[in-house]
Amino acid sequence: MQENLTIARPYAQAAFDTAHEAGAVAQWDDALQLLGTIVNDAAMRRVILDPGVSRQRLTDLLFDLGGERFAGKIGNFVKVLVAGRRLDIAPEIAQVFADHRAAQDNVANVEVSSAFPLDAAQAERIGSAMRKRLGKEVRITQTIDEALIGGARVKVGDMVFDASLKGGLSQLANVFNLK
């Protein structure tokens, strides 16, 4: 995945610059998120990897799925990804683009993984703590990871705050060299 992020960065930067110049950052973000979702679909992955499917057929299929969201310069960007056989990195391009948008809007994307769904009060406490620490507005997304047993793992960019039971047990095992 790190390699994909490295490859995706210049594509995402070019897309962001184009979107910013046109005043269409939200529209591009929406289209790139959709493209990333389409590409992540298992059935679509098979189509993308199938050497019997021409690039033109793949482009037509994507345009059918994306509809008006893939119009104009966004459509040209999709064509470039297909022609360059870079469609597989579309999810990473969408992620990097969203990070650029968040930086422009002075918003931090906070990913919270917990063993159980957070209630509103817990989400607000995490949001408040992260706003105070980062000095930015925060956008929280939550995923459930039952392997954490309890607590939560909070990720902001490259920073990870692990307050999970699994993380605590792992640290304890390291102290006792049991790992």
Helix content: 55-70%
Counted up, domains total 2
The name CATH uses for the topology of the largest domain is Peroxidase, domain 1
Please compute the radius of gyration using only Cα atoms.
19 Å
Q: Which CATH architecture of the largest domain is right?
A: Orthogonal Bundle
- CATH C-level class of the largest domain is Mainly Alpha
Number of helices: 8
Mean pLDDT: 91
Low-confidence stretches: none
How would you characterize this protein structure?
The chain has two domains: 2-102, N-terminal domain of the delta subunit of the F1F0-ATP synthase (Peroxidase, domain 1, Orthogonal Bundle), CATH 1.10.520; 107-175, no CATH class. The protein has 179 residues and is of the alpha+beta class. Helix content is 61%, strand content 16%. The two termini are 26 Å apart. A four-stranded mixed beta sheet has the order 2-1-3-4, sandwiched between helices. The model has no long low-confidence stretch (mean pLDDT 91).
Which properties best describe this structure?
179 residues, globular, 8 helices, 2 domains, Peroxidase, domain 1
Quick synopsis:
Helices cover 61% and strands 16% of the residues. The protein contains 8 helices and 4 strands; from the N terminus they run ααααααβαβββα. The chain has a 4-stranded mixed beta sheet with strand order 2-1-3-4, sandwiched between helices.
